[in-house]
Amino acid sequence: MIEGIVIYSREDLNKNLSYIDWLIEEGKKRGLNIRLFLEDEINEVCIDFLFAINRSRNFNITFKLEEEGVRVFNDYKFCILGNDKLIAYDYIETLGLNYAKVYSNLKEMDNNKKIIEKPKNGHGGINIRILDNLDNLDFSKNIYQEYIEDYIGDIRFYIINNKIEHAVIRIPKEKSIVSNFTKGGSIEIFNYSYKEEEIINKILNNLNIDYGGIDFLLLKNGEVLFNEFEDAVGSRMLSHLGINDTMEKFLNHILNEVKGME
User: Fold this and answer.
1) Domain ATP-grasp fold RimK-type spans what residues (predicted)?
2) How far is C-alpha 221 from the geometric centre of its chain's CA atoms?
3) Rounded to 5 degrees, what angle do the CA atoms 239, 242, 248 make?
4) What is the DSSP annotation of the chain?
5) What is the Cα–Cα distance from 45 to 107, expressed in whole angstroms?
6) Distance of alpha carbon 117 from alpha carbon 200, whole angstroms
7) What region, left, alpha or beta, does residue 56 occupy, with left being phi > 0 and alpha being psi -120 to 50 degrees?
8) Is the pLDDT of residue 118 over 90?
9) What are the φ/ψ torsions at residue 229 (nearest 5 degrees)?
10) CA nearest 130: which of 145, 119, 108, 112?
C-alpha cells in the first residue's frame, strides 16, 4: 500500500465525514492507504507517507509538506490562489481576463453603486453581503467589489489533472446575492462553449490543479467574469445531478502521480 494522508480543519470535519469515508475506501481499492489528520494535528504526524490531500485550505501546511518532499494535492501555488481572493485577482489580471471591479480603498468607491463585501479567504457564500453604507470597512480582511446587476448565475468548472471534467451553473434563488447550492441556489449542467474552454486553458497554462474549481459569473449578454478559485472543491452539486465520477478520476490521478515515488 502507498501511504498518504488527508487533512481537514475541525470546523469542516463533521459535514465531510461521508466524503472522507468514501475517499479512504476508494483509495484502498487502488492500493492507497489514506489516513485522516486534522489541521491542528499535522505537526504530530509520525508515519512515513508519500502524499497528502490538503482539504484544510491552510496553505502554510502545504508549504511545509512540500518543503519536506511530500507530494501535496493541491500544490502551494493553487492553494494560495484558492484561499486569497486578492492574489487570485492579481493572477487573473496578468492574463488579461475580466473580473468585477475590486476597490482598494474608500476613495475609489461610489455611493451610488451597489458594493459587495466578502471575506478574502471566504468560501461557501458565507459572510457575503451588499453594503448598506461605507462605515467600518476592513480592507485587511475583506474584498469590496462592484455588484453586477445583469448577473444570471455562477458557473463552476471542475478541474482534475488540469483538465475540465464538468461544468455546472448555479442560479441564486430570488432576492439572494449568492448562488451556492448549500444556500438554496438551483443547479444544472452548463454546456460551455469553445470560447469559455479557451479562457479556462489560458488560466491553466501556468497552474497545476489536481482537483479544484474555477468559478465565473455569467452575465445576461453571455460574457463571463472570473469570480474565484476553489481549492477544496466539493462534489455535492455533481452528486445531486447524478454525476459521481470525480472521486474515481481524482484517485486515479493521485495513483499515477505517486506510484513511481516509492
Assistant:
1) 141-244
2) 26
3) 65
4) -EEEEEEE-HHHHGGGHHHHHHHHHHHHHTTEEEEEEEGGGGGG--S--SEEEE-S--HHHHHHHHHTT-EEES-HHHHHHTT-HHHHHHHHHHTT--B--EE-SGGG--TTS-EEEEETT--TTTT-EE-SSSSS--TTTEEEEE--TTEEEEEEEEEETTEEEEEEEEEPPTT-S---GGGT-EEEE----HHHHHHHHHHHTT---SEEEEEEEEETTS-EEEEEEESS---HHHHHTT---HHHHHHHHHHHHHTT--
5) 48
6) 26
7) alpha
8) no
9) -100, 150
10) 145
Cα–Cα distance measured from residue 59 to residue 61, given in angstroms and rounded to the nearest whole number:
5
Percent of the chain with pLDDT over 90: 63
* Structural domains for the chain: 2-73 (3.40.50.2300), 81-231 (3.30.470.20)
DSSP per-residue letters across 6-35? EEE-HHHHGGGHHHHHHHHHHHHHTTEEEE
Q: Calculate ∠ Cα 81-98-80, nearest 5°.
A: 5
Between CA 166 and CA 246 the distance in angstroms is 9
Measured on CA atoms in the order 10, 12, 58, 243, is the torsion positive or negative? Answer: positive
Burial class (CB in 10 A: 0-12, 13-18, 19+), 14: exposed
Rounded to two decimals, the pTM is 0.90
Query: If we measure between CA atoms, which residue out of 103, 88, 94 comes closest to residue 143?
Result: 103
pLDDT in tens, 135-163: 888 888 888 899 888 888 999 999 999 99
Length of the chain: 262
